[in-house]
Amino acid sequence: MSDEIRPDPSDIVARLSRRPLALGERLSEIARDARTRDPQGSALVDRFVARLEAARAGSDAPQIGEMLPSFILPDHDGKLRSSQDLLAAGPLVVVFHRGHWCPYCRMTIATLAEAQHRIGRSRVVAISAETQRFTRRIRAETGAQFLFLSDMNADYASAIGLAITVDPALIERYERAGKRIPDFQGSKGWILPIPAVFVIDRDGVIHASHIDPDYRRRMEVEELMRAAAALGN
After folding, report:
1. Can you give the pTM of this predicted structure?
2. What region holds the Thioredoxin domain (predicted)?
3. Which of 3.40.30.10, 3.40.50.300, 3.30.565.10, 3.40.390.30 would CATH assign to domain 12-231?
């Protein structure tokens, strides 16, 4: 079997967005496509995820009933945003994602964008380690109208137990596929956040969450919406 990675079909997120599927089903389709195109790369991901799960990656992150630590981060236009000011307007849904280059993240953001008017435009906040150039890109590509914040060097994700260092074998794979993560983040390290969702009330207390070192699994949007609705406006 050839070790070459066939080109990632750039329209897979758009194609799946046109189908009435739940987020989990869409992500499973992307995973199946990845296994077909690049079985060796998918096997590397499986082994890396297994190591993260064995190490209980993400288990030190804030839990339900705890406070989500405050943050001050620049948004997609470079304006500093504080969690304190955002919470003054109501409860928040804080979504950590890996970046525009990740089809699972684009699919997640696109699915959230489909539901954004039912969640509340000011309620969702997406956080990644990418620079504004790329947060603006994913925002435009998905039609999202909510805030995208840049967590430079994944400092905030690291502080709350959500950062991981990419496996060297995967670094090589990503580079061959043209996904040089440090270039997207304006940094030198290969550090990514564990995808996570926190639904927090106006006091910053977590009422629902989803933390999974396997980035191919995410919180279903309907579950997120129920948790947000329970907090009111």
Report:
1. 0.92
2. 62-233
3. 3.40.30.10
